[in-house]
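Hello K.,

You asked for the raw outputs rather than the summary table, so here they are, unedited. I folded two proteins back to back in the same session to keep the settings identical. This is the first:
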Amino acid sequence: MITTKCYFFGREIPRDAFWAKYGWIFAFPFLLIGFILAIKPDWLVKLQIWWLKLFGAKFEPGKLISKIYRAIGIGWIILGLGFLFLALYYNLR
């Protein structure tokens, strides 16, 4: 059996205690960013255009950029759900 060690602020804590206590901290940002990217990818495109205008550059996004951001968002949602599953698994065990 493979065992892992988790360190939090320099202290070694058991893996199940770590995921039971801090797993939702990892899940929440991944789910939030993933849902924003999956539902409204145009927000990130507008942010990118605005940011590049500050530097005087002209950027015209392609037709696939929204689909790419949406796919990245779905990947982040899957990671967030995985972290949430670990947190719930070790809490309910």
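The second followed immediately with the same parameters:
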Amino acid sequence: MSYTDVFGGATLYPVGQSYLSLVFATDQTLEWPLEQQSSNIVASIMDLSATVPGLNVILTDARQVSTGIQAVFNNVGANTYTVKDSVGGTIIAPAPGTAWVAYLTDNSTAAGSWRTFQLGATVSVASAAALAGAGIKAISTTLNQKIEPSSKASTPFTIVDADRAKGLIYTAGVGVANLTAAATLGSDWFVLLRNSGSGDLVVTPPAGLIDGSATKTVSPGESCIIFTDGANFYTVGFGQSSTSVFDYISIAVPGSGDYTLSGVELNRISYNFTGILTGNRNIVVPASVQQYWVSNQTTGAFTLSVKVAAQVGPPSILQTDRAILYCDGAQVVNASSSTVVFPISISQGGTGAITAAAAVTALGAVPTTRAITAGSGMAGGGDLSANRTLTLDINSLTTDTTPDFAADFVPTFDVSAAANKKVLLETIQPTTLKTLQDTDFSFSNQGTDQTITGLTQALLAAKNYLIEFAVRIVTASSGYSFSWDPPAGSGLTGFGSRAGSANPLQLASTGASDVIDSQTAAARDAWITGCVYYNPSSDGNLIFTVKQSTVDVNSAVVAGSSWSRATIVA
């Protein structure tokens, strides 16, 4: 059995409302003519009057109807109103006394896509909403600039043609923004870019250059406008968003471990860190080029360092101290190569220690526990906590009763050489060669020779010897003589005196027997005293004789004649 379609096989559409007249003093929402029971339904022709300016007529979701649906908006009032789609976009804004046709060309979104034209106009008037493109916003009957913000929270990301005139806000860490080819974007394309993240953003074109380089680094807090001439990219207004050329921020960083700068803390210049540290604290900064003037006003016996996230051995700042640091993009370093590192090494003029005791040891100084001890013949001394004086204490020495003149020394000061020296005792101590007493001689016979032996040149060379004498001569009859008989060539000079005579005795040796004194008077009892200087030029003995007369025969020196003293000294 066959089937007959009595409706002709065509789609049946719901019957739409043909006409709507509406006077309104508030925003109005118009429903599509579906199943809703509402008086405000989109009609084919609508006479609308807004009693106050700035009101809106809002259409519902465009996905509820088919493309091709249309409506006439006739403004019969005294105020302009704005027809908007379901998401707030402007479709048209009819001025008073004008009528506009709007029809749907795309219903794939809630807003839909609309085309409009004016009815009955003697002069063609373009719709601002119809003309609004990227970076342009229709407000009533005017076109206005706009920046549509777009957040980029991941890396890498690609900046495409649809980002034209948008404001891209990067919020991640170190990242990369890849540009679409300049030839694809066209010479009139531009985009606004701001780095609000925590690390450098490297903008990279696939070909050509950006500001003359292969890449452009936008550090945190920096922003720019990027545009292209179809071959290369350029930036305008590139720079850091800062309140002044030099700024300051104080941040409390109590606790321990890592403290990562973020938000308004980033890319400042002068930082003052405060708070009680409970452990070593690291201030983590972005791995981007920046300087950091740091003042460490924290408390607690722990260190404060500034570093990038992966840095090992970052510079530290002593408490209450200040330092100028900078990040070279890879690590934080000290801006000054002469930074004081404690303890200061000895080579840098320090002690190499942080305590007094350790400094004494490092410098090799003598501690006060050391002492100066007085040795033999000295007094004084003591530990080094004060100045000490040493003095000579001769009374503490043992008396040497048998000095060795040929081996022993005494200290002296040589004025001509201005130096301390030592002197052999023999050179300063008179050497007694012979002491003649009355027991050494016999005067029982006249003319008896008395001899001083051992007068060798080696012993006496280069020295003058003084022979002191005192002789008592007692005679029973007239005539006597007293003479010296030195070796030939000897130098023998002398002087003396005789009791009872006003004339001194004189002697000038000629190397032969020399009479010192003679007397022809009667019986005699007198003393002869004096001295003789003797300097031999050869070895020999020194002989002296006392005679009764000038002839050494049958004369006698009576009892009582004697030598009181005859000493030869150097």
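Residues 491 and 519 are 25 Å apart (CA to CA).

Happy to rerun anything if the numbers look odd on your end.

Regards,
P.
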